[in-house]
């Protein structure tokens, strides 16, 4: 049994069925036209600049990206050091910027922000300095905004369930339990509801 030359290739099969000749083979790759391989340092520099376009990134994020792209460690370290020297990579500034966007935007408390910064590779001491700049009044205000917004969706549940859900919401956002209970109790009272004492 002879096998058809077009078996497995749909385009060739359709052409054969319609009585047309098979498509021409693609021309061979001209290795000289491609030129020499790109310089690894130039490639790494372009990766870093692309990553930094539009948003700041931590040194660890950039290092991880270079590693995934196969950039040798010595080149990555040298370039990241140079980018730090000229201020393009700055973990202090990154931490402050991250907090400024996540704290009011997502309503995250210090503990949740610290975990995010740790995942981003920010040194604990650098993160602590940036987190110490958060005004406790701003943190409490963010908690109140979260509770008020969620409270509007809890009109059909009793006060005990509402309290548990609101305190749970704040816990997931990293707020300490003392602050969470105080804010929830006050916001429920402001809505003519009563927060029961939870164990």
Molecular structure report:
The chain has a domain at 135-199. 63% of the residues lie in helices and 0% in strands. The chain has helices spanning 10-17, 31-34, 40-52, 59-68, 73-85, 91-106, 110-119, 124-131, 136-151, 159-172, 177-190. Helix 9 crosses helix 11 (177-190) and helix 10 (159-172) crosses helix 11 (177-190). It is flat and about 80 Å long. The termini are far apart. The mean pLDDT is 84. Belongs to the RecX family. Residues 44-82 form the RecX first three-helical domain. It is found in: Cytoplasm.
Q: How is this fold's topology laid out?
A:
Blueprint: H1 10-17, H2 31-34, H3 40-52, H4 59-68, H5 73-85, H6 91-106, H7 110-119, H8 124-131, H9 136-151, H10 159-172, H11 177-190
Helix pairs in contact: 3-5, 4-5, 6-8, 7-8, 9-10, 9-11, 10-11
